[in-house]
Give the backbone structure.
Amino acid sequence: MARYLVTGAAGFIGRSIAAALLARGETVRGLDSFITGKRENLSGLEAMEFVEGDLADPAVCSEACKDVEIVFHEAALASVPRSVADPVATNRNCVDATLNLLVAAREAGVHRVVYAGSSSAYGDTPTLPKHEGMTPNPISPYAVAKLAGEHYMRSFMRVYGLETVVLRYFNVFGPYQDPTSYYSGVLALFCRKMLAGEQPTIFGDGEQSRDFTYIENVVNGNLLAAAAPAEKVSGRMMNLATGSRSTLNQTFAILSELTGYSGGLAYAAPRTGDIRDSLADIGLAKELLGYKPAVSFRDGLRRTVEWHKKREAVA
Ligand code: UD2
């Protein structure tokens, strides 16, 4: 009997949450459609019951939610540019999937759903840091889709009494983030390229900034969100980040040091739908969850580079 369901369990964040749950001796069911998840990410998760399926199919959601108490909903079609290229696919895999999952969770008597929100919901508002009281201003179809999921979470809490917690992630990075797709996160791409001696490309002038958040901090935030008292967190949305930001130019300099890359950098036109600066106020997660980012940006980068080195060595 599974106690936890992790959607997107063969993806970067889902895989990492599942691993942490298994390490605590929990009973875990993982689900993935492999649209972007990778079979190799399941290595080390053999103790997890795995279901291959697509959340856009309501029957898959019903099956996955059976006997589950807590759901970590990490499955999504991530990436701003991917959503610009194919907004319908993003909507299907983010909005339809989330609604189907919520319907199934409610029917199965799931206690709580913890949802992977996105900092993209804030859009390009000039105010920094971004705090939860700000009016959302999504730009890309991806941001709209992730924000729609947040609204569905709150609706299901209000209308049906399902406990929901939304964690707005800020540019998560770390081991198991796919470095091979054009749509991969910038740090995974840069690590792989720089270790291979290939020149990375910055879209724009490189002065855009992000609150890059190491995966271990995000996993900890999720475990806290699953365990926090309902009266404190149910129906709430909070940022999950580090509360500090780096520009891409600064990040490139640190990565050059960590990878030993001595080549240059290419600059190309800024990406459509991109936002300029992103920085979180993490006061609410501290207050409601007792969350504290334990791994710094630099330490996270160091661990990520080590993981990419090992990955290349076995490839
Ligand atoms: C958005 C969300 C993030 C998460 C993510 C999922 C914001 C602020 N963040 O991340 O929370 O939901 O979507 O995909 O909206 N870039 C380069 N060169 C490359 C690749 C990217 O310069 O080879 C730039 C890119 O133009 C952007 C920055 O790096 O300015 C970060 O891009 P990203 O795709 O890693 O993440 P982002 O910010 O779109």
